[in-house]
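Suppose a colleague, Dr. K., hands you the sequence of a protein chain of 871 amino acids and asks what its three-dimensional shape might be. Before reaching for any lab equipment, you can write down a predicted structure in token form. Begin with the sequence itself:
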Amino acid sequence: MKRLANILILLSFSVLLSAQTDAHFIADKAIRDKVSVAFAEKRQLVGEQFFTDIDKISDRTEREAMQFIYAYMALADITDYTSAYHLAQVRASLQAREELPWGHSVPDLLFRHFVLPVRVNNEALDSSRVVFFRELKERVRGMSMQQAILEVNHWCHERVTYQPSDARTSSPLNTIKTGTGRCGEESTFTVAALRSIGIPARQVYTPRWAHTDDNHAWVEAWADGTWYFLGACEPEPVLNLGWFNAPASRAMLMHTRVFGDYDGPEEVVLRTSNFTEVNLIDNYAATSRIDFLVLDRKGQPAAGARVDFKIYNYAEFCTVVTKYTDPNGRTFLTAGRGDMLVWASKDGDYGYSKASFGTDKTVTLRLERNATTDLTQTSYPKEELTIVPPKESANLPAVSAAQKAENDRRLAYEDSLRNAYTATFLSEAQAREINPKAAEFLVKSRGNHATIEAFLKKYSASEDRALALLATLSDKDLRDMPMEILDDQMLATSSQLSPRVENEMIILPFKRYFEGQISPSDAAKYRKNPAKLVEWTQRNIRLNPDTKAMRIAQTPVGTWRSRLTDSRSRDIFFVDLARSLDIEARKDPVTSKVQYRQDGQWIDVNFDAAEQKSAPQGRIVLRYEPTKLLDNPNYYSHFTLTRIENGRTQLMNFEEGQVDMGGGTSWMSTFRDGANLDTGTYLLTTGTRLANGSVLATNQIFNIYEGKTTTLDLTMSQNDDEVSVIGQFDSESLFDKDGRRVSLLSQTGRGYYVLGLVGIGQEPTNHALRDIAKAHKNLDDWGRPMVILFENEQAAQRFASENYGQLPRNLILGIDSDGHIRQQVAAQMKLDNPSQLPIFIIADTFNRVVFCQQGYTIGLGEQLKKTIDKL
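The predicted structure, expressed as tokens, is then:
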């Protein structure tokens, strides 16, 4: 017995000693104490019920790692995912650090902020960390960190390639399931893969390009003391190389959101309770700094003023970063050397000015306007602005011919692997055999087709309701919607079928849950008078007092359980709750207002008002005289409307049509005869993008009054320069076509033609060909040929015209196998980077070039049309 007692004492001492010598997750006590405070504050804010399991974790490293991620976690990630889920991800990260050779060479700071966090952007969280670690750890064994980064990107390319889609970001595992992703999804997926094997990685994005429309996201990964960049799912032979080297050198801002309170060497743009936003533009482009002073109406420094930095893109001045002034009314920004619009506001007062980085050193903004002054007249004079983007200054690493050839070989093989997988998706004929009424849904569902097929079979007795539900879903919803969500919508008693409010993540069933939470008598009361449901929401759902917190949309169930949310998630919660009770409700896609329908009328929801009613409205009519160059201006391409409310701006999101495939709102379809708008103050912005990337823009502030029509001229500034000869190109140059060498002249005949040198699989080429598809009717009417040349036979085999829409009829395909034509165009047009694709020219058979465009640009088809119309 004595011996047993001694053993027990020794065992107890051993356990105590082990507990005392457990490593801290954060070695620095000052940082550890800061995290402890943040964790305690978050715990008090959200509610004890979401944190109790963390206290039960016996391993100190795991417990402190959990405290770190919970301290800075978005509210939605606390309320919508279990602590068991988060603990599994923490353990996977710690396992990777132990098992991979570079694990302990990664500094603690980088591990905390760029490896441990599961969330990359605004995607739904999944278990990709565990899955990817299992798949990748052996594949990268024996490699250096740099080699591993390159290899992971090849693995990513085997599974995913670029395809535009809507703004919702799918989870990494769902991106694999569908086989495609837009750049935000590809980069989220690649960052997740790199982090899964313990390599620090971050998503870098330029919120909007300055020299063309659209935006882009890519990846930075850390190896042996240095951050490198790479195009996600776009493997290159070396790091710091991507098709975007050149456009990135023309960007004005790149940034990344770092999880937690990050204290690294980069310039901090914004700190919040969830993330630290840092500016990375110095890694890519020549930059300059401007210091800003904001003065109030009395000419005094405006402390705490909001300053929005706006880049012209898609016919709006889009906010790309927000800062706040210090007690002296000052702030600053480092950006690429081009033009921005800078908009300052405080307490409803606002003012704005153009700022030219590289030229201006200081800019003063005066808050001289507000709702009262704006309403003194119907419209104000147009302000004409010439917006100039930064110049190109790309820096390209060296790549040997052998490296490029080997990389091309791997890309072709990886395409074959991915294509073998996507070949298992349903064709239209196969889908029709399964269910002719649902064939479109089955084809669009891609890798999720088994779920949609099983759903249709499961509810064959209620086919009309099942088809009506599928019709409410977006293409992306069809690709990743799980059965449990479809079941919930089908089995609920509500006739309101749509599970989607905006672009939120739909990860938990909610309709039948709310049926069980709301008594039948209360449900009947709310259906009779939905304003009572607004009142209930006002009383019972708290808003997070931290208005700068990350606004990942909570599930409605998460909001119900926590009774704490942000304004965006409250909107979604109300609409979902109302629909669950069979009340027609929505978030208006144009204005973002929450509304419910009563007696055939949409009623605006105002959670701060005692009475719910529709906003008064007037009308806007835009006058425009069609021209040969532009007969019907399009919303987003040529003009936009922005509401000014409380001194801040909100874009009116009219229908944009299918991504990259045309359609959407135009002057002729919507504004020629007039459109309804809520009363208030607005900004009409128009812009003409020139071939060099500059913009001729106009801004005009105007008002909408109740019951009245405001009529404005839609002015599209033009550069009236006629087409001129800008270079030469030999029209008798040879290329390979159908196994023989032919000249351009022999294929085009005498006259003008378009020549395109493209890089298949690269995003700039994808955009260019889709833009050409959108303009195919104009190019067909022109009647002249378009010659598209690939780099090599492998690239030609990878080309699939159906991926781009309807291309022009007079399309001639060939191969510039020796690169002679590309080199000649680059030399004659004095292009700085001959390897940057695509390159498009308009030339004639007398060897005169009248148009040249290289690299990443949006609107190529329209630019070709403008030039052609002037010939």
